[in-house]
């Protein structure tokens, strides 16, 4: 199958998700081509340059449909997959011009706005990364498929865990999450006998800062606890970490008991309580002072990743939906 993926430059877990999906499809023998539009900063290019080169990514100017049209003419793609709202219109225009279907991935909230409705309506299928995202698009429920972020379980895997306990915060500090991370800093100040790592240099607490780079798999392989939301948590689970879900709200420790009650595992950081350093400190202290419980959650995390977030399995689900969309288009 020949798939043209469209995304815009955005320094985020969404970008990692798209790179991972394209890589998985290429490994499975599909002609998966990623085109990213925008004017990336030097910092963004520095982070992603190796991945862009390895995947053969096309970089275009915003709205440059002519270049993409030439690419479609040359490679004769079967289907277009748009991942960013900034590329929905491009996908729809190219779909009509070349009479090939397109699908859309909805990565976050707010896509039910009127400006996006025409593009979602024309899409052959909608992939939502969580139930919460899908709930915001009730009009399109008939063609929504909930498929979470997947990770490469060979890239993200546990390594030897050694004392002291190591805790990783993998996150961008968005304005709406700043309060949560300030509460985390207060908890970190109270916690003794553990080492904190963060991928964000703007976090003002006693942490060892590293850049948001390809070293994250190595970092998470040696850490014991991951803190964050969404893809960052999934990567941590795959690397054998216990997880605290902290975003706009605090959802606490991810446990087997919580996931048993959920059809789709909620890692959004949106459905918890008001973040409070006391609750965060209590959970971290409980984990760091109880090695048996911590090990149990680490083993559970890896198993959860294998059962729900294996990139190979999730990609196959996506490809199967591609085939159904193509079949309907040809009927």
What would you note in describing this structure?
By secondary structure, the chain is of the alpha/beta class. Helix content is 44%, strand content 17%. It folds into 2 domains: 170 residues, Rossmann fold; 144 residues, 3-Layer(aba) Sandwich (Rossmann fold), CATH 3.40.50.2000. Helix 9 links the parallel strand 11 and strand 12. The relative contact order is 0.13.
Task: Give a short overview.
The protein is of the alpha/beta class. The chain has helices spanning 13-27, 42-55, 65-75, 88-98, 117-122, 131-135, 178-190, 216-222, 230-238, 256-260, 277-288, 291-308, 311-330; strands at residues 2-8, 31-37, 58-60, 79-82, 102-106, 126-128, 144-146, 165-169, 194-198, 208-209, 225-228, 242-246, 250-253.
Helical fraction equals 40-55%
Gyration radius, in Å? 20 Å
- Beta content comes to 15-25%
At the first level of CATH, what is the class of the largest domain? Answer: Alpha Beta
Quantity of strands, as a count:
13
The CATH architecture of the largest domain: 3-Layer(aba) Sandwich
Number of domains: 2
User: Which parts are unreliable, with pLDDT below 50 for 5 consecutive residues or more?
Assistant: none
């Amino acid at each position: 199958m020949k798939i043209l993926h469209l995304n815009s430059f955005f320094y985020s877990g969404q970008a990692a998700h798209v790179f991972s999906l394209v890589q998985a499809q290429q490994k499975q023998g599909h002609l998966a081509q990623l085109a990213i539009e925008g004017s990336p900063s030097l910092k963004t290019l520095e982070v992603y340059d190796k991945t862009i080169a390895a995947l053969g990514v096309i970089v275009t100017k915003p709205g440059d449909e002519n270049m993409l049209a030439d690419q479609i003419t040359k490679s004769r793609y079967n289907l277009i997959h748009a991942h960013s709202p900034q590329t929905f219109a491009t996908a729809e225009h190219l779909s009509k011009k070349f009479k090939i279907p397109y699908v859309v991935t909805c990565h976050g909230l707010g896509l039910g706005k009127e400006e996006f409705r025409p593009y979602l309506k024309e899409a052959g299928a909608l992939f939502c990364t969580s139930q919460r995202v899908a709930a915001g698009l009730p009009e399109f429920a008939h063609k929504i498929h909930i498929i979470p972020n997947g990770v490469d379980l060979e890239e993200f895997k546990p390594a030897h865990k050694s004392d002291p306990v190591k805790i990783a915060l993998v996150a961008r500090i968005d304005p709406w999450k700043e309060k949560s991370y300030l509460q985390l800093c207060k908890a970190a100040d109270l916690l003794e006998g553990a080492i904190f790592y963060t991928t964000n240099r703007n976090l003002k607490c006693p942490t060892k800062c590293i850049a948001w780079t390809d070293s994250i798999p190595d970092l998470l392989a040696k850490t014991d606890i991951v803190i964050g939301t969404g893809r960052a948590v999934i990567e941590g689970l795959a690397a054998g970490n216990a997880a605290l879900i902290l975003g706009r709200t605090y959802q606490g420790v991810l446990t087997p008991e919580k996931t048993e009650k959920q059809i789709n595992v909620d890692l959004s950081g949106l459905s918890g309580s008001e973040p409070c350093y006391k609750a965060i400190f209590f959970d971290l202290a409980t984990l760091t002072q109880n090695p048996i419980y911590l090990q149990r959650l680490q083993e559970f995390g890896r198993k959860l990743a294998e059962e729900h977030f294996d990139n190979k399995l999730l990609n196959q689900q996506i490809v199967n939906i591609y085939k159904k969309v193509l079949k309907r288009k040809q009927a």
